[in-house]
Amino acid sequence: MAPTICEICEASRAAVIRPKNSQKICKQCFLSVFEAEVHDTIVSNKLFHRGERVAIGASGGKDSTVLASVLKTLNERYDYGVDLVLLSIDEGIKGYRDDSLETVKRNAMQYEMPLEIVGYDQLYGWTMDQVVAQVGKKGNCTYCGVFRRQALDRGAAKLGIKHVVTGHNADDVAETVMMNLLRGDLPRLARATSIMTSSSASEIKRSKPLKYAYEKEIVLYAYHKKLDYFSTECIYSPEAFRGSARTLIKDLEKIRPSSILDIVRSGEDMASLVPPELASSTSCAAEGDEQANGCGNQNQTSDSMVRLEKDLTANEAAAERETEIRLPQQGVQPSIHDKKRRGRRKVVKQVMGQCERCGYLSSQQICKACSLLEGLNKSRPHTTIEVGIEEEEGSTTLMKQTAGLVISAG
Amino acid sequence: MTTGIQGDVCVDCQEHPASLDIRYRRLCATCFIRYVNSKILKRMESYRFKNLAGDQKRRLFLPISGGVSSLVLLQVLDAQLRKQMENRNRTAYGLIIARVVLPDIETRAEVEEHYQAVRSRLPLHDFLPLFYLHDVFRLDEKIDRSLTHLGIDRHEGEENETFLHRVLSACTSVTARADLISILLRRLLVSIAKQQSCEAVLWGHSDSRLAALALADVAKGRGGSVSSTIADGLSVYGVNFNYPSRDLFKVELQTYAQVLSNPLVVESRDEMTDRQPSTIRNTSIDDLLSNYIIGQGVKYPGIMANVVRTASKLQVKAANHETNTCPVCGMPAITHHESSLESTVLCYGCARVKQDIKPQDSSGYGGS
């Protein structure tokens, strides 16, 4: 039996079976096709403009490493004229983040890009090691997710950059679509598949150039390009919950490899069908909890499904009682129902403002990060003077950050 | 549903011992039956007497599949109509019953036997003769032209059954085959309903089934038509679609069939056994999601119910001159101008099915 020939160039021996469509192609064609598809995504969605400075959210993992490598390659090949910078967040997890940051530092040298590292302890006065020591492993991902989201924006603002690209891939987007459908979260469903999200209240926009790239292909690309990346998962993220959206998506991918892109497409179609009053917050991504790779996806899934189930059960019980009470006024019931729906829709709308404490964008008076921080600080023991000194340093850092934000805003 | 401890009492009537756990409430069998009946009949409010004009006679089409859901629905509605006949000597609507024999799943003999058994027990309704899936080529006048969009051309003088076999054989994946069967089945049932002058099709789908359909649509790239798939009211086919059992879970319908003294469900197929295939690759997306809903529905029934509520809130894109309608599945096709798949008139989902279809140009068929 003759060796399989590449379906594209028909010259070399096929070395790769594309996860996306089961096409058998050689290594060189795979690299070319992958890069061409990312380029097509960038151009058709007009992600970049000449002269723009762009920060790449770099964690040292495979997605951000491939993203940095591909963007450097395409920027040189197609002359986007974009100034690329690596931006990393140090959560303060010993044995995990310090090692992955070493990877990012090597990437910065290999790709000749400037690197900026922002730490949780620097911004908030708390490392994740300290947070976990305080609140335990369960639920710590909520803190980390909220902190990281804000930290990325703050890091970009500090550098005077208004565009952050992240390594979210097609698998991440598909999982988000499924999760938002299961959670009944229409505002997030409306924006889950947006490749570029921005907010009228914030200058920093986000985009996902790898939105249509499969996770498996990203791994293959990194392998064939011999890219240097860190692959350990977060040590604080508990065991994956069986039946999560991620598991479902992997099963679907086995049945039909294109399922992931099919789900992404469905997400885009459904986004256009979300009622306008619910979709009005499409551009407000600041408070959204986009799930980052490897950091607590499964844990959040597990927690949120249990919690959501309790809420829905309570809602249904209340609705049952309500229906019984309304029984004598059967004719009036429909209009009452309509009014309630209107009330619900109003609640969903978000008005963006600024946090009273740190000046960061928020839909509440105090942003979520500051709320979490307040909770943490209340529990912090004052057994030694040194701890007190640490606290002062923390608040001083916050004031400096606030001043920095004010200056950059002006 | 677990049998309760001795001593606790039904929360509804406070009299009989509670033997069932229904959504965290302890009910006796009688109150549970009343619960199911009220959920279904509440959804049939638009077909009450007071909505009738004079001598108007409504006809509603109810296809049964032999499964629990459609038979429970039929039994509940039959009881309602018999009560109306006793009280007023006439009914608010008439039921037209039909059954389709699906290829490779069941034989005509066993379907006929069960169908006649149901028929003999419910003399009030109009039972049509059995249909086959390939009857869609006889009753749906546009179906041949629709299939050409999938790259399937019918040979001159080719028989319906032969054509169906060739169409299904052309599918290279289990999912595409299942998708095509469900499209053909839906179009057949709509054609029968129109032929019989019925104003609506009553589907026996439970909440669990609707959730599985919604998720499967999303997984197959048909997210744009999810709201059309599960919405009550006028469908894209010009006939009303109603889902009276949409407020009930599949497991509740199964419990109802067990609790009832005279169920229509007799020796129903071991649906659980069939749903555990050895290899996931031989499963269709629809089956995978049905299993997912069943598995997760046990732990998180509210979340699964939430899927249908969420999908129902999505707007249905009206079929007007602004929106294209897919010629194969009839659903609205949302166009994204960048995509190369949009060079055809097919919706994204059917375009994906087309990729999995490899027509065989066997001259043997044409020669017969």
From TrEMBL, chain A:
Q: Which residues form the tRNA(Ile)-lysidine/2-thiocytidine synthase N-terminal domain?
A: 54-233
Q: What is its main location?
A: cytoplasm
Keyword tRNA-binding on this protein?
A: yes
**InterPro entries (alphabetical):** CTU1-like_ATP-bd, CTU1_C, Ncs6/Tuc1/Ctu1, Rossmann-like_a/b/a_fold, TilS/TtcA_N, tRNA_thiolation_TtcA_Ctu1, UPF0021_CS
Q: Which residues form the Cytoplasmic tRNA 2-thiolation protein 1 C-terminal domain?
A: 353-383
UniProt enzyme class: transferase
The record's keywords, sorted A to Z, are: ATP-binding, Cytoplasm, Nucleotide-binding, RNA-binding, Transferase, tRNA processing, tRNA-binding
Please give an example of a GO cellular component term from this record: mitochondrion
Where ATP is bound, by residue?
57-59, 63, 89, 167, 172
| Superkingdom | Eukaryota
- What HAMAP family does the entry give? CTU1
What this protein is called in its record is: Cytoplasmic tRNA 2-thiolation protein 1
Name of the gene this protein is made from: NCS6
Automatic annotation (TrEMBL), chain B:
Signal sequence interval, chain numbering: none
Which SUPFAM superfamilies does this entry report, sorted A to Z? Adenine nucleotide alpha hydrolases-like
The alphabetized UniProt keywords are:
Cytoplasm, tRNA processing
Q: Which domain of life is it from?
A: Eukaryota
Question: Where is this protein found?
Answer: Cytoplasm
Family according to the record: Belongs to the CTU2/NCS2 family.
Name the job this protein performs. Answer: Plays a central role in 2-thiolation of mcm(5)S(2)U at tRNA wobble positions of tRNA(Lys), tRNA(Glu) and tRNA(Gln). May act by forming a heterodimer with NCS6 that ligates sulfur from thiocarboxylated URM1 onto the uridine of tRNAs at wobble position. Prior mcm(5) tRNA modification by the elongator complex is required for 2-thiolation. May also be involved in protein urmylation.
**Name listed for the protein in its UniProt record:** Cytoplasmic tRNA 2-thiolation protein 2
Q: Which organism encodes this protein?
A: Fonsecaea pedrosoi CBS 271.37
> What gene codes for this chain?
NCS2
